[in-house]
Amino acid sequence: MARTVVPLSDPKCDAAKPREKDYKLFDGKGLYLLVKPTGVKTWRLKYTKPDGRDGLATFGNYPALGLKAARERRALALELLAQGKDPIEQARMDKQDAANARTNTFRLLAQEWHSACARKWSPGHASTVWRRIEAHLLPSLGDRPVAELKTRDLLVPLKAAEKRDTLETAGRLRQYMTGILRMAVQHGHIDFNPAVDLQGATATRKTAHRPALALERLPELLQRIDADTGRGLTKLAVQLTLLVFIRSSELRFARWGEVDMVRLMWEIPGERAAIEGVKNSHRGSKMSTPHLVPLSRQAVVVLDDIRKLTGRFDLVFAGDHHHWKPMSENTVNKALRRMGYDTKLEVCGHGFRAMACSALVESGLWSKDAVERQMSHQERNTVRAAYIHKAEHIQERRLMVQWWADFLDANRSEAITPYDFAHGQNEAENAVNLLEPK
User: Fold this and answer.
1) Are 305 and 352 found together in one domain?
2) Contact 87, 118 (CB under 8 A)
3) Do 422 and 365 touch, CB atoms closer than 8 A?
4) How does pLDDT run across 392-422, given as a tens digit for each residue?
5) Are residues 151 and 43 in the same domain?
6) pLDDT of 305-332, one tens digit each?
7) Would you say residue 27 has pLDDT above 80?
8) Which of 200, 233, 274, 329 is the most buried (most CB within 10 A)?
9) How many whole angstroms separate alpha carbon 371 and alpha carbon 347?
10) Are residues 94 and 125 in the same domain?
């Protein structure tokens, strides 16, 4: 028959005097007060570990840890045992987690996240991201343990950016925090990502698309380009931009070595050799992968004219004063303003891309994939991208750019819609005829 244990009381604990040897005062369910010859009284719990071995836990000394508190510690230990957990091992793990929480600061996790992401970023982009994190996130969050961060804490730098009206920066910062704390969840530092509820927490600016002319205004645009009295190389730059509809940096930093006049192909590299003293001159294709630009007959004529002016230099669009530096990024837009266009409201150089894309789609001739590849757009569906990244659709794109150049020529005298030009009874030489069955 089990021995009946009379629970302890505070007076009994207070009255316990030291003896020559250790002795125990039992409270029941494994809890006892060990009284030592020195007069120290220590709470201990004898229990059976989940694996069947004997276990002994020490809670603390009496009276610093009173009887009521010792019983609460016993209840917690018995609850853990009922869950199959060893109280001593659990205490050790809790202590380790607390230590990790203190050392796993937002700054440390931000550095780890940035290092991991930088492997797939360009050096310039990686530098920009870290500069934003240092300037906007680390001052208020850097030394905070990630385990302590709440959504309201993360809102502080976002609201500061919103107050400065740097709404795009606020959006970027939210993305960075979401990524950093997602990694913290994956590494077991936190159980929930508090950044997920930041969506919609700050104002957003309405997307402003680059201005582009309606296609029915093409005759007017072409006539103004032809009549332009500006610098010869500038006029050719505007003409080529309209024909090949590539991005400004892709055009400005072009080298003659990229243009193959035998294959009638311009290959824009993912990255170019930087030009000392010229910001962002290392940029190639925006997607950081080589982009093929087939050349129409009309584009070849324009390039031949440009070669007469700059063919002895490395840069296709060499600067006016220093041939080793490219033309200004404002050159094309400045020319359009000289022609009478408002480049913020009517049309800008980048708007030529939208005009070409609209015409190609409206013609009904070309596959979506071929148009997207010619526009150098990145496939966002990563699974699909894995299958189509090698599919250049190059033959279709050769016909496409020739069709666009012919369409421009057809609009020199009067406006014609892309659909009518593609499907009308025009017997003139045109790339579309190659698509028709014989």
Assistant:
1) yes
2) no
3) yes
4) 789 999 999 999 999 999 999 899 999 999 9
5) no
6) 999 999 999 999 998 778 888 888 899 9
7) yes
8) 233
9) 21
10) no
Domain tally, the chain = 3
Residues 419 and 364: beta-carbon distance below 8 Å: yes
Q: By C-alpha distance, which of 268, 239, 297 is closest to 375?
A: 268
Cα separation of 283 and 290, whole Å?
11
Q: Can you tell me the distance from the alpha carbon of 399 to that of 235, in angstroms, rounded to the nearest whole number?
A: 25
Beta strands in 285-363 (DSSP E): 291-294
Among 77, 102, 127, which residue terminates a domain? 102
Domain that holds residue 341: 208-438
* Burial tier of 151 (Cβ tally within 10 Å: 0-12, 13-18, 19+): middle
Measured distance CA(231)–CA(106) in Å, rounded: 54
Q: Are residues 194 and 324 in the same domain?
A: no
Highest mean pLDDT among 212-216, 245-249, 372-376, 381-385: 212-216
In angstroms, what is the C-alpha Rg of the chain?
Answer: 36
d(CA 321, CA 313): 13
pTM over 0.85: no
State yes or no: pLDDT of 385 exceeds 90: no
Residue 274 lies in a domain: yes
- 438: amino acid identity, one letter: K
Active site residues: 247, 286, 350, 353, 377, 387
203 occurs within a structural domain: no
